[in-house]
Design goal:
By secondary structure, the protein is mostly helical. The chain is 64% helix and 2% strand.
Length: 442
């Protein structure tokens, strides 16, 4: 939903996105609690960290701005993030739910790229300007780079639209059914990134291409992800050792434009000082100290959270991102698991790693703040589903069943849609090899 669509409510600035989240918040919460009751959901570490982060935001705002501002502004920030997170934790239960989400994401990206292309052809963000005039909202100035419009479709900023396309490229490439659709989705998202004329999303996309190529080339190598993480960790450690200012060196390598890198380094210097001066609850909505010529925006999610809500808020978000990628499933070969769920879990892990890295040069707000909550919630839910499937396989193995590679046979009993399957040697043979089983539908 475009940020310019505002509902006529005097209590707070309620966009259509926030209205949808508000309507779905409690049904998603109740669905999540119901899942805890019937065993299809388990409380995971990201659940705890996300809830703590939301309470920290409200508490920090109360300390710096008062309870009234905390209830309104802080409540909207919490609603945008926690609402998206809960929708994924509460409503996504089966493989079909995940596939449906990927299809809707593909449709949304297609519409947004078409709007961005139209805006680029006319040379201005005409769609959002028209919506702003209808709702009476302030229009956002058009941004140009090298004579080209930086398209933003219906999002708040071109960087956010480009980042959304970069993240969606990975999800669509791993999540769509056929090879043709996967490459079409990848091309569509790449085109969307190009239309934004933004360096950070382009860098995120290039990193994503590199990781996906690595996954493809070394797909038969056990421990390939541990190897990649080790290489990256060693590179960061080396950067810390050889550089007096490792954050400055990292930002210089995450931006293509020297002037952009210089401004972001100054942001880290001045805004970082404010964060260190008030490390626990931040400075709230107070303007951060800087030279008069510097823009007021802070172009990094990690620094924004630290300055506004305190350093613990940044740590809690980072912890939730990392914890959601944790493997909580029993150790079973991937060939025995649903390949689609395994593939999607890998895709979400790549996207969340991109979010951590690109977060040093991009601030997520509005739609992208909600999307970040959705990504963490979906990755945590995928971990739940794969863990349940692996546990069912282990249970069948302990009962004396012969475990088959995925796709050989599929059990009729599939309470959470994860697709676990095992063959009981005591069952008599039927048309598909054993009574009570049918061939997979995919």
């Amino acid at each position: 939903m475009p940020a310019q669509l505002i509902l006529p409510i005097d209590i707070a600035k309620i966009t259509f996105t926030r209205a949808i989240l508000l309507v779905l918040f409690f049904p998603a919460l109740f669905s999540y609690i119901r899942g805890l009751g019937n065993g299809t959901r388990h409380i995971q570490l990201p659940d705890i960290l996300v809830v703590f982060m939301c309470f920290w935001i409200l508490g920090a705002f109360t300390a710096t701005e008062g309870i009234a501002v905390s209830a309104e502004s802080g409540g909207l920030v919490v609603l945008e993030f926690l609402g998206g997170y809960l929708i994924m934790r509460g409503f996504v239960r089966t493989r079909q739910d995940v596939e449906t989400y990927v299809l809707w994401l593909a449709v949304a990206i297609l519409l947004l790229v078409l709007i961005a292309l139209f805006d680029s052809l006319v040379g201005r963000n005409l769609v959002t300007e028209s919506i702003a005039r209808l709702t009476g909202e302030r229009t956002i100035d058009n941004q140009y780079r090298n004579g080209l419009l930086r398209a933003r479709a219906m999002l708040e900023h071109p960087i956010l639209f480009g980042t959304l396309c970069a993240f969606a490229a990975v999800i669509l490439f791993y999540g769509l059914r056929t090879v043709k659709l996967r490459f079409a989705g990848l091309a569509l998202c790449t085109f969307g990134v190009v239309l934004t004329v933004s360096s950070a999303p382009l860098l995120a996309l290039l990193i994503a291409f590199g990781i996906m190529a690595y996954d493809r080339i070394f797909r038969g190598v056990p421990g390939r992800w541990r190897l990649l993480i080790g290489v990256i960790a060693a590179a960061l450690l080396l950067l810390t050792i050889i550089s007096d200012h490792p954050v400055r060196a990292l930002i210089n390598r995450l931006t293509f434009d020297a002037q952009t890198a210089y401004v972001r380094l100054l942001i880290w210097e001045y805004a970082g000082a404010d964060a260190l001066n008030s490390p626990w609850v931040g400075i709230g909505r107070e303007d951060w100290a800087r030279p008069l010529w510097m823009p007021p925006s802070i172009d990094t999610i990690w620094l924004v959270l630290a300055v506004v809500y305190g350093i613990p808020c940044s740590l809690l978000l980072g912890g939730a991102l990392l914890a959601s990628m944790r493997n909580t499933a029993p150790k079973v070969p991937e060939s025995l698991l649903d390949p689609y769920l395994v593939r999607m879990r890998r895709a979400l892990s790549i996207v969340l790693c991109l979010a951590i890295v690109i977060g040093f040069t991009v601030h997520f707000w509005g739609v992208m703040w909600t999307f970040l909550g959705i990504l963490i919630g979906l990755r945590t839910t995928l971990g739940d589903m794969v863990a349940a499937e692996a546990a069912a396989l282990m249970s069948g193995r302990r009962a004396g069943a012969r475990v088959l590679p995925y796709g050989t046979l599929r059990a009729r009993c599939d309470p959470i849609g994860s697709g676990f399957r095992y063959q009981n040697p005591r069952r008599s043979s039927g048309r598909n090899g054993s009574t009570g089983y049918r061939r997979p539908y995919f």
